[in-house]
Design a protein that fits this description.
By secondary structure, the protein is an alpha/beta fold. Helix content is about 40%, strand content about 10%. It has an 8-stranded parallel β-sheet with strand order 9-6-3-2-1-12-11-10. A 4-stranded antiparallel β-sheet has the order 5-4-7-8, with no helix packed on it. Helix 3 packs across helix 8 and helix 5 packs across helix 8. It is globular. The N terminus is likely disordered.
Length: about 500
C-alpha cells in the first residue's frame, strides 16, 4: 500500500475502543517480576470484564543492568525473566518442588536439560521449526549471549577475533560452548511459545496486544555486534555519536540515551533489510505496534559521544519516507502507531500523515499551552491514540497533586467536575476524545500516586520496578470501567 493510498484511519485502529497500559513485569506473582503465566491470563480476563479491547505492553526483550526495556541486548529476542516456570513444570521439564529449592536460572537450566533429553518427537520437531523460523536472528543472539557470559565484558572489549567475528573463532565458540548455546536457544523457544499462547488466549477473547518497538537498539546488543557497519562506530566498536533528545518537558539537559546511531545510507543500500527483519519479529508478536520516538525517522538528535549530556547535539535528517515505503511494500498490513511526542515539527507531522499513521495525544499535556496544542481535547483527531499519561509520565493522580494551586484550578475549570475523585475526571475526559483508541495506565485505573510511577526519564535508579497486586483492584472496578466505556461508545461493538 502506497502512502498516497493510506486510509483516513490507520490500520492499527479498527474500531472505537479503549485499552490498558501495563508491562508484563508489573503483573502480580511470587517472583521478582511478572511472567507470561496464569497471572497474565487472569489479567486478560479482567481486561475482558472491563470491556477493554487492547492490552499495551512495553518492549519485551532481554534487559540490562538498569532493567530498562528500551535498552535490550537484542532487537528480536524475548526476556527469559518473563518465562513462566509453572508452565515448564506442567510440561514435565521441571521436577515437582524444584522451584522452591533452586534459583530461577538453575530452574531454566534444569528445564532445558530435561527438554533435550526427554522431548517427544513432536516437541523436538516443534523446536526445530522454531529455530528455522527464527534463524535470521537467533544464532547471532545466542553467540552474543554466551560470549557476554564468558567474558563478562561488552562486545567491543572482547578479543579482536571475536569482536570482528572471525569465522574460525566463532566456530570454535560453537563447539566449546555448545551446551550454553543450547540453553539460550531453549529459553527463546520457551519464551516465544509462551508468548504465542498468551496472545492466542487474548485474541480468542477479543483482546489485541499492543507492542512497543524502540527506534534505536542498545550499543551492547547482538545486532550492533553482528552488523557494526550499520552504525556510526570507530574501528574498536565505540560509538562516535549517540542518540537522545534535546532539553524538553522531562529534562532541562535533554536525554542522552547513548544508543549508537544508524548509518542510514548503508541501511538504504541494503534495502532496509535490518528494519524489515525487526518488523517481521514484532508483527509476529503483536496485533498493533508503536514505533517509539517516531520523530527520529524524520530527523534525529545527534550527540557527540564525548558529550556527557544531550545539550550540545543537533538535528540530522533521516530517510523516513524511504523506510516506510519499503516496510509498506514488505508487509501486507502495517498496523503501526507513531509515538510523536516531544519536539514535533510540521515535517514530522507530514511524514506521519503521508503514511496514514495514528499519532499520540496525552491528556496530562492538554490543559495548558496555546490553543493549537495538539494534546488539547478540541484538537484530537480520530486517527490517534489518546492517553491519560504514558509510562514516562507521573501517574495522573501524582501529576495533579504536583501542580500548583493555580494550575489545579485551571485543570478543575476545564474538567467541570469534582477533582476530589482524581484521576477519574481525566479518565472520563480521555474516553470522550474523538481518538479511536483511548489507553489508560493501570496505575490510573487504580487511582495510585507518584510512588507507583513506572519511569522517570533522565534517571537510572528505581525505574521499571512497579507491580500491582490483585488486592489493590476493587471488585467493582471492571464494571465501573465498562459502564464508562458504554457511555462513550468505546466497547468496540
Amino acid at each position: 500500500m502506497s502512502p498516497q493510498a493510506a486510509p483516513e484511519i490507520g490500520e492499527a485502529l479498527i474500531r472505537r475502543e479503549a485499552g490498558v497500559l501495563l508491562h508484563v513485569t508489573s503483573l502480580p506473582g511470587d517472583g521478582d517480576n511478572g511472567t507470561l503465566g496464569a497471572e497474565a491470563r487472569a489479567f486478560v480476563d479482567w481486561v475482558v470484564a472491563a470491556g477493554l479491547g487492547v492490552w499495551q505492553v512495553l518492549p519485551l526483550g532481554p534487559t540490562q543492568l538498569d532493567r530498562s526495556p528500551y535498552q535490550s541486548s537484542s532487537a528480536h529476542a524475548g526476556n527469559p525473566e518473563l518465562i513462566d516456570l509453572v508452565e515448564l513444570q506442567r510440561q514435565g521439564w521441571l521436577e515437582p518442588g524444584a522451584m522452591s529449592s533452586i534459583t530461577r536460572q538453575q530452574a531454566l537450566q534444569q528445564a532445558a536439560d530435561h527438554f533435550f533429553s526427554q522431548a517427544t518427537p513432536a516437541q523436538q520437531s516443534d523446536y526445530e521449526d522454531f529455530r528455522a523460523a527464527q534463524a535470521y536472528w537467533l544464532d547471532d543472539f545466542i553467540l552474543f549471549q554466551v560470549l557476554s557470559e564468558e567474558t563478562g565484558a561488552a562486545w567491543w572489549d572482547w578479543p579482536d577475533a571475536l569482536r570482528h567475528r572471525d569465522p574460525d573463532a566463532l566456530e570454535a565458540v560453537r563447539r566449546r560452548l555448545a551446551g550454553r548455546m543450547g540453553q539460550h536457544s531453549f529459553e527463546q523457544y520457551a519464551f516465544f511459545r509462551q508468548w504465542e499462547a498468551l496472545k492466542a488466549y487474548a485474541n480468542e477473547r477479543g483482546v489485541r496486544l499492543f507492542g512497543d518497538m524502540p527506534i534505536f537498539v542498545a550499543h551492547n546488543s547482538a545486532e550492533v555486534w553482528a552488523r557494526p557497519q550499520d552504525f556510526y562506530l570507530d574501528e574498536q566498536g565505540h560509538t562516535t555519536v549517540v542518540a537522545g533528545v534535546p532539553p524538553d518537558y522531562f529534562s532541562e539537559t535533554g536525554q542522552r540515551w547513548g544508543n549508537p546511531l544508524y548509518n542510514w545510507q548503508r541501511l538504504a543500500d541494503d534495502g532496509f533489510d535490518f528494519w524489515i527483519d525487526r518488523m517481521r519479529t514484532q508483527l509476529h508478536m503483536y496485533d498493533l505496534l508503536r514505533i517509539d520516538h517516531f520523530r527520529g525517522l524524520e530527523s534525529y538528535w545527534e550527540i557527540p559521544a564525548s558529550e556527557p549530556t544531550a545539550i550540545h547535539g543537533h538535528w540530522v535528517k533521516a530517510p523516513g519516507d524511504e523506510l516506510l515505503d519499503c516496510l509498506h511494500d514488505a508487509f501486507s498490513t502495517l498496523p503501526l502507531v507513531a509515538e510523536d511526542l516531544g519536539i514535533i515539527t510540521p515535517e514530522v507531522e507530514a511524514l506521519r500523515n503521508r503514511h496514514g499513521l495514528p499519532g499520540m495525544r496525552v491528556m496530562q499535556f492538554g490543559f495548558f499551552g496555546d490553543e493549537d496544542n495538539p494534546h488539547r481535547l478540541q484538537n484530537h483527531t480520530p486517527n490517534s491514540v489518546v492517553y491519560t499519561g504514558t509510562h514516562d509520565n507521573d501517574t495522573t493522580l501524582g501529576w495533579f497533586q504536583g501542580l500548583s494551586a493555580e494550575e489545579q484550578a485551571v485543570v478543575a475549570g476545564q474538567l467541570g467536575d469534582d477533582v476530589a475523585d482524581m484521576p477519574w475526571p481525566v479518565i472520563d475526559l480521555v474516553f470522550t476524545s474523538p481518538a479511536m483508541l483511548a489507553v489508560v495506565p493501570m496505575q490510573d485505573f487504580l487511582g495510585l500516586g507518584s510512588e507507583h510511577r513506572m519511569n522517570l526519564p533522565g534517571t537510572s535508579d528505581g525505574n521499571w520496578q512497579w507491580r500491582f497486586d490483585w488486592g489493590q483492584v476493587p471488585e467493582t472496578l471492571a464494571a465501573r470501567i465498562r459502564d464508562l466505556l458504554a457511555g462513550h461508545q468505546r466497547l468496540g461493538d
